[in-house]
Design goal:
Length: 159
């Protein structure tokens, strides 16, 4: 991910993050994928009514799907409203899907959604990461680093 792409993500009016993923996994590689959505789903995402808690991705028949993503029903929707938790297809190149599929065959590797955002063209995009799970001692080290950073910030603000 280059600086220009990172700037576009920061400018996005909607940024739905999977905060627990960074604590639970080491990110090996990050990909940006489009999401196949219905009309009421994109409206709910633009309102920020989505959650990435307990989501994961799986590859089936050469297609990548996100499972467990929760998008609240659109408030102004009628009988055509969408299901809250359904499997949604992600759009990646065949080559990228093949790389992810080969990597996830190794034990301990998985694909996790980390961010949903709206790009400059108004389309919903998702950042997914190829991840390796952290052990308990890695999680403790992450918590200690975070605590140390907070302590340093507090000490710096005093002066």
């Amino acid at each position: 991910m280059n600086k220009e792409q990172e700037q576009l993500r920061k400018k996005s009016p909607v940024q739905i993050k999977n905060k627990k993923a960074q604590f639970e996994y080491f990110f090996i590689d990050i990909y940006t994928a489009g999401i196949v959505l219905t009309g009421t789903e994109i409206k709910s995402i633009r309102m920020g009514k989505a959650s990435l808690v307990d989501t994961y991705c799986m590859i089936h028949n050469g297609e990548i799907w996100v499972k467990g993503m929760s998008i609240s029903p659109y408030f102004y929707g009628s009988f055509g409203n969408h299901e809250m938790k359904r499997d949604r297809k992600l759009l990646l190149n065949r080559r990228e899907i093949w790389k992810l599929q080969e990597a996830t065959k190794q034990p301990g590797y998985t694909i996790v959604p980390i961010l949903v955002f709206i790009d400059q063209n108004g389309r919903a995009k998702m950042d997914i990461a190829l991840c390796r799970g952290k052990k308990q001692y890695d999680k403790r080290a992450t918590m200690k680093e975070k605590e140390d950073r907070r302590e340093m910030d507090r000490a710096f603000k005093r002066f």
